[in-house]
Amino acid sequence: MKYMLASWLTATLAFLIAAAALPGFNVAGLWPAVLGAFALGLANAIIRPIIILFAFPLTFLTLGLFLFVINGAMLWLVTLFVPGIVVDNFLWAILAAMVISTANAIFGLILG
Q: What is the dihedral angle through the alpha carbons of 41, 47, 52, 54, rounded to the nearest 10 degrees?
């Protein structure tokens, strides 16, 4: 339970960092970031594995680069359901997903 709360907090901070770093990705405040982190966690746990399974041939052909598109699609899907999170276009969604993933990885290394 403690790990799950720490993961949720780091994902929330990653959302806020991405919003501060990227002009095409906007988060209206703390609560949209919290809800976005929760929704992204659900989307990554439930929907993402199914998409990765069906997109495996394309992922294989692009040497894994299509995973960036899948991550961006998951973030874009979250913005459709969470009010207060706005992405200008799909490219910004891919870039924001990259920033969020990188920030989560760094926080995960720091927190252990």
A: 180
Residue type at position 69: V
- Banded pLDDT at 112 (limits 50, 70, 90): confident
Token pair, residue 109, equals 């290394």
Token output for 47: 């929907």
Strand partners, 26: 86
In whole angstroms, give the CA distance from residue 34 to residue 52.
25
- Alpha helices by DSSP H, listed for 47-65, are 48-54, 56-61
Contact between 97 and 68 under an 8 Å Cβ cutoff? The reply is yes
Name which of 87, 2, 81, 5 is nearest 40 in CA terms: 81
Q: pLDDT grade, residue 96 (50/70/90)?
A: very high
Residue 51 Cα distances to 15, 73, 74, 87, angstroms: 23, 10, 10, 21
Phi and psi, residue 47, nearest 5°: -85, -40
Q: Rounded to two decimals, what is the model's pTM? A: 0.92
Report the pLDDT value the prediction gives residue 1, as an integer from 0 to 100. 76
